[in-house]
Structures are given as structure tokens and as C-alpha cells.
Amino acid sequence: MEWLVSRSLNLGYLALLLVASPWILWNRLVHGKYREGFREKVLGDLRLSRRMDASPESGRPLWLHAVSVGEVLLLKPLIADWIRFYPQVPLVLTVTTQTGRGVAEKMIRDLGAKQVEVRYFPLDFSWSVNRAIRQLQPLAIVLVELEIWPNLVLAARQQAVPVMVINGRLSERSFRGYHRFVGFFRWLLKGISCVGAQTKVYASRFEKLGVPASRVVVTGNLKYDRLETCRQNPRTIALREYFGFHSKDIVWIAGSTQHPEEALAIDAWLSLRKEFPCLQLMIVPRHRERFEEVAQLILAKGCQPVRRTSATPYKPQHNELPPVRLLDTLGELGAAWGLADLAFVGGSLTNRGGQNMIEPAGYGAALFFGPNTQNFKQTVDLLLANQAASMVSSGANLAPFVRTLLENPQQRILQGQAAQQLVLDQSGAVEKTLELITTHSKILKTGSAGGLGNLGAGMIHDHAA
């Protein structure tokens, strides 16, 4: 059965690659995508560096996989704790995109984590995932949120490597799609060692898809945990100084935006700035491929784009065009939210389904978004139920809504305080997730990795106490 499924999947993947090859070639030539990582992606060559192999303390690694840049960043506190508790255990962090790899490598450098190496995730061909697992012989494979690749799960099962899902999230839309093939997923997901779900609702959905209830626990959302809540942190201060914001300014950030949300935000700001001259606008597009496009849009609207990538910090000049700050870098949005008095989270006036709104909530910004937030329904429901956010029905209502916040400063302050308190109340997910990984990996089962089983048990005992 497994052999037949694996070969069928290989044929299906090859067919999809053949169909998508013109699009892949176009992006490779025009946008520079898909040029890196052939051996890792196609051949599954994830071997550790010679430096790591040569270390007498190195044992079998833990394999962490994150798809998006957001997932990479939310792993930072988890990785920091891992290297603190398990300094002898290597960690391999795999990603899927060139952008994700760049962000991951920078994060690892910032942590000073010499035992962590970043690789591209192998495509889900049987030969790729089998070779990767044979090379790494990982203590466990840890997938973030929802990345269930069938051949990977089957190969791990055959080689007796635990597979677990952390920060598990299964939206209603995804659940309906998977449930159409519930028979297949019930068979496949029996091979999952455990799922750490964000909420009880997500946990129930994983169970209905076939993960045994005894292997599903609610650990909370890593995005809530250890978020920066202090606006005077060094990274936020550096951005404030670079963009030339003053204490009297009211800063509106439109973050993780997509077309046409930038234009909607600029039009709303232009309609308000004469009446509220202290209102400043910063735009942070979701994808770096659109940075130049948005800069040109700002110019077309009769404004001056003040870009983070400019050679010198911004200094206001007399008689200049209205300045719109443009954060055209990756990995700085989290710190930029600390500048925001008003925070609009993009992807919510389009069909994207929303973006992460926890970071601006942590800073106590007055948080708002459009109606299309189905990918973050649990978070949105929690925010709205606690009067910690607002929903704007359409782009045309942006200006009237922002005007209401500007005319009622006490309202926006109270809403921001409610959002920040909500984030603080949801903490603890990192510890619970680390405990889950330690319990279900081979660290405790075999006492491998330099006898760290006792250390893991001690950590769990301390946490439980």
C-alpha cells in the first residue's frame, strides 16, 4: 500500500512540475526565483556541514521545518530555548523559499546559534525525502502549523523517525478541503507522533482528520508568546530615528499590504492630512517583488516615497511632497509595528484572508483590518470579542474609520491597551511546545544526544512545577 501511494504521488508531482514548468522558468529568468538549492530540493542532500560533523559533541539533529517568513520568525524564541537547554544537539531548519532562507540565516546569526544550520526543504519525492532522512537521522521532524507532505510522513514512518506538528492550525476552509479525502488522511495521519494545536477548535479538526485524540494537545499560539511589547526596544528606536518621526506624530502603519490596499491607504491619508497634519503614513508591502511598484505608486499619488533602503536617514525639507514612509526591507515589520499608533493589517481587503495581527496588538496599537480574515478567524474572533480590534467593511470606509480614531484618542488608547493585555494573557506556548517536542522525540525515548534525556526530563519537571 505504501509503495503504491508513494509511486503514485511521485507521478502526480512530476505531472504538476511539467505543467508548471513555463511559470517556473519565467520566474527564474525574470524574478530570480528557484535558482538555488537544486541538490537540497530535488536530491534531498541535507547533510550537515563538515564543521558540525567534526564536532565531538554533535549528536543527531532535530529537524524543524517552516514554510513562510512569518513561521521562521515565530520560531525564534523556541530555537533560543532549544540551544539553551540542548547546547550539544544540532538543529536543522528547513525553508521553502529564497526569501525565507535569507531571513532564517539572519535570525540564526542574531541568535549566535552555531549549532543551527539552514537548508532548503526537499520536494516531496520519495527519493528526496528518504535520502534527507537517511543523511540527517533526525531525532524528530517538526512541522510548523500545517505542512503534511505524504511521502515525508511515509519515509519517516519507515525509518522510525517521529513526525510532529507544532503551532498546529487548520482553518475551516483547509479542513473542508482535506475532509474530502478523509479516508486517505486517516490512514496517513496515524503516522503523526503528536500535534500541538493552537486552539481547541483546531485540535478537534486534526482529530476528525485522523490524528488519534491521545496525540493531540492544545499548546497555544507561538505568535502570542514572547512578543515585543516595549516600544523603546533598539530596533524600533532605530526605525523611528531613520524615518524622522517626532513625538507629536500620529503614525499610521499599513502593514503586509497587497494590491490595491496601498492605494486605498494613501487616498485615505491624503484626504485626512490637512485636517490632521500630525498624521503620518508608513506602508509595508507583503512581498518584496512589489517594493518598487509601491514606490512608483506613491510618486503617482503626488507623494514622496521615503524608503528604508535609501542611503541616508530621512530629514524633512520645506516645500517637499507629502512623505509616505516605505519599509522596503524584510524582517523589520515586527519592530516597525512599535511605531504605530494606528495599525491596519493588510491582506484583509483582498481575497488573501488576512495576515498576522498579533505583533501590532502586542505593542498596544489601535488595530483594524478588513472583512476578509478567514485565515485568522480564531485570532480575529478573540480580538473582536475583547474589543481589542475593529473591522472596516471596505476600502471606502478607511478614511471615515481613521477619522473616528483621530477624533477620539481615548477610544484608540483603550482599544490598544485591550489588545496588548490580550497578548500578555496568552503567553506560555513556547514552554508547552518545547515540552511536547522533548517528550515525543528520541531524546527522551533513547537518551540519545549525549545523555540529554535527563536534562529534558528535568526541564519538564520544572515546567510542571
Mean pLDDT: 90
Structural class: alpha/beta
Number of strands: 14
Spans of 5+ residues with little confidence (pLDDT < 50)? 444-465
Distance between the termini: 45 Å
CATH homologous superfamily title of the largest domain: 3-Deoxy-D-manno-octulosonic-acid transferase, N-terminal domain
Q: How would a crystallographer describe the biggest sheet?
A: 7 strands, parallel
Number of domains: 2
How many helices does DSSP assign? Answer: 23
- CATH architecture group name of the largest domain: 3-Layer(aba) Sandwich
Function: Involved in lipopolysaccharide (LPS) biosynthesis. Catalyzes the transfer of 3-deoxy-D-manno-octulosonate (Kdo) residue(s) from CMP-Kdo to lipid IV(A), the tetraacyldisaccharide-1,4'-bisphosphate precursor of lipid A.
Enzyme class: transferase
GO molecular function, one term: Kdo transferase activity
EC number: 2.4.99.12
Task: Describe what this molecule looks like in 3D.
This protein is α/β, with parallel strands linked by helices and 465 residues long. It has two domains: 9-226 and 429-464, Rossmann fold, CATH 3.40.50; 234-425, 3-Layer(aba) Sandwich (Rossmann fold), CATH 3.40.50. The chain is built from 23 helices and 14 strands. It has helices at 2-30, 38-43, 50-54, 69-74, 76-85, 98-111, 126-136, 150-158, 172-179, 182-189, 200-209, 234-243, 261-272, 291-300, 333-336, 358-362, 377-385, 398-407, 409-425, 429-440, 442-446, 448-451, 453-464; strands at 62-65, 91-95, 116-120, 141-144, 163-168, 194-197, 216-218, 250-257, 279-285, 304-307, 323-326, 342-345, 366-369, 390-391. Strands 3-2-1-4-5-6-7 form a seven-stranded parallel β-sheet, sandwiched between helices. The chain has a seven-stranded parallel β-sheet with strand order 10-11-9-8-12-13-14. Helix 7 (126-136) packs across helix 8 (150-158) and helix 20 (429-440) runs antiparallel to helix 23. The chain starts with a helix and ends with a helix. Pathway: Bacterial outer membrane biogenesis; LPS core biosynthesis. The active site is at residue 71. One of its GO terms (molecular function) is Kdo transferase activity.
